[in-house]
């Protein structure tokens, strides 16, 4: 009787799953509203949110790819966090919070074994409509939903006899037991070591290419905006090396500068030469030819910053790459010029040099001024001059205290990083830009209280989630348990 019932249940389950199967292409189409809401390219002016969404999308794509693999059985519930562009009513079963920039942070856990259920879970978690999924599924959404909730109870003897793992038991255990640092390292240390060893030759090649090109072009530094893999970075340096061989005369203009490989070509607001990774040598050549004109514009930009400073009592206008969008020199100049004209016409009564030692950054996506924990003012370009004057006067003393605290925090952070590297014999310890210094300090202090032999010789990245990167770097959340 048990055997017959098991067979019938198995046939029924297969029929249900076949009726609810989505193809990979259907899943991508169904998730279009989600990708539009969280795609990193739409967060260009918000580095923290962009970084979190970029990393979460990588993990989501890996989860979806695994679901489409033939014979895929084992999986681990995956917790993801995304910043969503628009505000929607909160879902009752999803953890949400709002970032300083006003975006909604949505956290949810994927644990389904088929594409349709996964797609529906993602859309529902982000409060996005699922009506369009009906046309992609062979049965109406309501019927599919009722099928998902249909309780199919397999006799425990089936798992004892076959040796298969009980998915319900696995899911309950995963939900009951929170991932801890030690358990995660137990499961992933071997994989990270294997990937790290494989990447070592490429890492040496990358370092060699970087040193050679920096010396040949007399560069200040070579950087990357995104966390591309080692192989990708080597390829970009090889491309730059070929251009050096083909057009050495135009590269003399880059002397003393920093080259940044990023999404577009030009000169950044910080004065770095940007090389778009999707551009061909022709575009790079044009950028190097235009550098003398960029340098002239940069001088005008610095003069504009000085004029704004004079109108605001000596407060220094700065640009912080980690906190501000990656603007071109032209875009930043227009922003400064518009703000300067507004200040000049308002004639605010700031006493000369009364605010010396303070700092401010301009933001085009805010409407109210604020004070950052590191002591610099975050001023919207559309801010009302009278409101700006009152805010700066009211927060000046607090800003000076925050600036002093920033210096102390930076020293503490560096000391803890050095101590942690020595204690655990790490080859490298770093953090993602979206992790603050306060979070890094808290993380390192707690790490130093543990015994972690797994970390010897590893590359450890402090992030917001657990992950093993393609080149063997270990990512752990700063608030690990």
From TrEMBL:
Instruction: Tell me where in this chain the DUF4460 domain is found.
Output: 18-128
Highest taxon of the lineage: Eukaryota
InterPro entries attached to this UniProt entry: DUF4460, DUF4461, TCAIM
Domain DUF4461 positions: 179-481
> One Pfam family for this entry, by name?
DUF4460
Write out the GO cellular component annotations. Answer: mitochondrion
Q: Where are the annotated coiled coils located? A: none
The protein here is known as: TCAIM protein
